[in-house]
Amino acid sequence: MTQKSIADSIATLPPLREIIKAHDLAARKSLGQNFLLDLNLTGKIARSAGDLSVGTVVEVGPGPGGLTRALLSEGAASVVAIEKDRRCLEALAPLVLASQGRLHVIEGDALTIDYGALGPAPLKIVANLPYNIATPLLINWLRNADGIASLSLMFQKEVAERIVALPGDRAYSRLSVLCNWRCDTRISLTLPPQAFTPPPKVSSAVVSLIPKHPDPTDCDPALLELVTQAAFGQRRKMLRGSLKSLVTQPETVLEMANIAPTRRAEELSVAEFTALTRAIATQKIPAAGITPPPE
Ligand code: SAM
After folding, report:
1. Cα separation, 197 vs 218, whole angstroms
2. What is the assigned CATH class of domain 3-211?
3. What is the pLDDT of residues 158-199, one digit of tens each?
4. Whose CA is nearest to atom 23 of ligand 1?
5. Which of 1, 47, 250, 257 could form a disulfide with 275 if both were Cys (CB 3.0 to 4.6 A apart)?
6. Among 1.10.8.1000, 1.10.340.30, 1.10.8.100, 3.40.190.10, what is the CATH number of 221-282?
7. Are strands 79-83 and 183-191 parallel, antiparallel or unpaired?
8. Which atom from ligand 1 is nearest to the alpha carbon of 33?
């Protein structure tokens, strides 16, 4: 089996529109189905994920298989595709055959899969995500980013902009802090609605997230999630006010972290958020079930 013979057999498969018609894959909104049928585009997305020839590529939601074809044609050694819509599984059968053992399709829910058990490292996640669950999926991957080498993910453009935003940007948000604490992030491609079938209402963008290794253990990730939630929950408020939902004396922890109490969440750098999280870790936070570490 050679890469060329796999790419050649994939090239002889029927066009995606025919697959969709033959398997009656009318797009379901409830499953976030906006398909990519232009193989030039899917090729670009697959290439944006870098070298796929070692380890395991995980694709969430292969649908009719446009991006999956591209991943295999671009040299992925092993692709594990997780799909919730049973209709797509049959539609993908010819591609599984053409892949000569390189494609495994799992019927399942990407929100509950154990990603660590899917195949040998390095694990690269590449997906045109269902937008209705894109953010929960990303948060879950960030929590388990140790085992992930890279993520190349299609989001609504507005979400992509939040992921890569810097302090002071209008899009700077809780998601920006959580993503950039754990990963290097950048937008690698933007796409208009017409690139999809059916077209969504908004533009889209592929974000590349590369987890930082070794794991940045400079603060407790679960507590960072709570701190950013409290701070951005009232983003226009000064931190001495917004942090009251988490700690009884915000001024004390802000002073410990060397942050003026009059500053706002939208101005704080990721490093300042981690300093603040370390300071808060020394306090008793009954609401979050967190108590300070023993002396
Ligand atoms: N990858 C295909 C493409 O680019 O044309 C389809 C992408 S479409 C935006 C999202 C895909 O995710 C659909 O095939 C949908 O059925 C699937 N999906 C939706 N929710 C899912 C879930 N919870 N777990 C796994 N797949 C899901």
Report:
1. 43
2. alpha beta
3. 999 999 999 999 999 999 999 999 999 999 999 999 999 999
4. 109
5. 257
6. 1.10.8.100
7. unpaired
8. 8
